[in-house]
Design brief:
The complex is a heterodimer of chains A (about 110) and B (about 625).
Chain A (H helix, E strand, L loop, with lengths): L2 H21 L3 H30 L8 H32 L13
Helix pairs in contact in A: 1-2, 2-3
Chain B lengths: L7 H15 L6 H26 L7 E11 L2 E9 L1 H24 L5 H23 L3 H19 L6 H32 L4 H7 L5 H18 L8 H4 L5 H10 L4 H8 L1 H6 L1 H22 L5 H21 L3 H28 L17 H15 L5 H16 L1 H26 L7 H6 L5 H16 L15 H10 L9 H27 L10 H6 L4 H47 L6 H22 L2
Antiparallel strand pairs in B: 1-2
The chains are: A mainly alpha (about 110), B mainly alpha (about 625).
Chain lengths: ~110, ~625
Amino acid sequence: MPINYYIFLSVALFCIGVAGVLTRRNAIIIFMCVELMLNAVNLLLVAFSKMHYHALSATAPHAGIDGQLFVFFIMVVAAAEVSVGLAIIVMMYRNTHSIDVNFLNRLKH
Amino acid sequence: MNIQLVWLVPVLPLVGFLINGLFRNSLSKGLTGIIGSGTILLAFVISLLIFGQVRQEGFEGTVVTLFDFISVGKLHIPFAFQVDQLSTLFLLIITGVGFLIHLYSTSYMHEEEAPHFARYFAYLNLFVFSMLLLVLGANFIILFIGWEGVGLCSYLLIGYWFKNLDYGNAAKKAFIMNRIGDLGFLIAVFLMINQFGSVTFSEVFAKASTAKIGVLTAITMLLFVGATGKSAQIPLYTWLPDAMAGPTPVSALIHAATMVTAGIYMIARSHVLYDLTPVTQGVVAVIGLLTALLAATIALKQNDIKKVLAYSTVSQLGYMFLGLGVGSYTGAVFHVMTHAFFKALLFLGAGSVIHAMGGEQDMRKMGGLRKWMPVTSMTFLLGCLAIAGIPPFSGFFSKDEILSAAYSKNPVYYGVGLFTALLTAFYMFRLFATTFSGKFRGTHEQEHHLHESPSAITIPLIVLAILAVVAGFLGIPAALAPNAHWLERYLEPVMGESHVAEVAHGTEIGLMALAAILATVVSLMAWFRFKSKPELGEPSGFGKVLANKWYVDELYNAIIVKPLDLLAQLLVWVEKNIIDAIVNGVGRLVQYSSRQLRLLQSGQVGGYVLLMVVGILVLFLVELFVKK
């Protein structure tokens, strides 16, 4: 499969994520959209990694492996982020009985 | 008395100043008076002891060096005192007259509250200290320190009653006018350092003849500018009449007897320089003569008793400068001395009158005071006779010496000088007749309070009157009795041989007789004219011009003060509208932009994210298109 498809899919996922973050007010959905963006990047990394491997495997047996390593890192970071982020959302819900991010306007004051 | 102890003379008044100044809130009036007068009396006694040594035949001037004052590169300025005949004479005048005036002040200022009383005495002591420094300094820098010190004290004492705005303005006027002159003095000192590498009298005078005549003329002219400021000569004389705002003893001490003669002392001290520069001498003589004449004409129409005396002081100072200008340094110093006696006497007498009149200074409201104040009027009369130049009172001899020297230089000088002397006689007897004879013209209440002043006031009057009568015999002219001129012989080690061409004795006696007869006639004329019919109305015609002081103050106002004021207003405008605008503009710009930027910080999380995305997009586009 040519790399173009992977790129298009990944960009589409990323844009959906961005649009979700920008337009939605529900913290959980924003959260999910952030995850979507992260995973779009992951997908792209894996796709490029594979492309490099195919192109260079004859001379370099480990070509493109570092792209996949990055993906693991991102997954770990995303998991950590989720745990913190969910905790914040829970606290927010306890305080405001809402998970509408517009309530966080109060940060300003 | 060891000459080395001369430093005690100025230090004693300084101690008095420190005690009265620092403890003014806790000292009683009696103690303040004793400290203030006592230190001056002690200084006078020490001066007398020094005088006892200095007057001996063959005494050479000594320099007493206390410490190295300024030492920069090749320039060394020691803090040194010059003890010779001239400075010792001034020591005696300053401490002697100064003591009498301190004594007088203890009574005159008695109505002041104790702290202000002490403030007065502190200033007065500081003044005496500065004046002594001025005459004792062995170089121009020490002289300048004293010069500035007396200027400061004059300012402080003119503005002694500082709650009165007019008095404060008079004080400022005196200070600023003096400052103009002081600038000339300072530049002269710098020129001296540049030319001679020294400011010590002996070194400068020794090297003077090697300097170019142009430079020397510049130095002497600039020194003279300083003298016109301090000694109230044209064009800087206008501060002195206004300085009468101060308490009357201050006018007597500072603005008649001592400070205003500082210019004469300075020029007499540097006579070596002036002898080498005939151009400056001519200028000094002409300025002195013009000042004498101008001030005398103004004095004719003044009605404030102190103003008359103030203009008469300016006029007499003009005489002294005339004497200096024609080379009669001894005559000028002689006139300084006699003037110190009779003018201090006249001022103190006027103070006694003002005291009795409850602060009234307008002669038109006085009259007939002889009846109530016999001592004051008697001593005042002696002062008038002395200043009018009637023999054998002191003013006659000193004035005659200057006039005959003027005659030998240029008969025109003599003519104008004699005319001025007659004016002097006229206005002084106008003053005397208006004040002391005729009917009392004040209010009934004032009449009730009229009284002779207490002894602390009358004793100085009597002492000064005696001095005003007899001081002239120290300088009997050679035409009358050969070798009877004690002062000339006394000052000879400092002044050198007389620089004045001798006038034939017959001519001189003729001139003296003429001056004496005319002065007597004019005095009697004024006396009879104003004895019973004083001038009470407002002057008209030319008299009005004189009463308004030739409109000199108005002229200065129009040509100097107003343009400067306009310039100041312009600069204020520039300051407010240009410089301030720039500074405020920077501040306002920062404020405006921060207010605009603050809008970005909305607190809307969505907004932040949008901006972030926009930012990423921008970076992306830049990366994509611009970098290549």
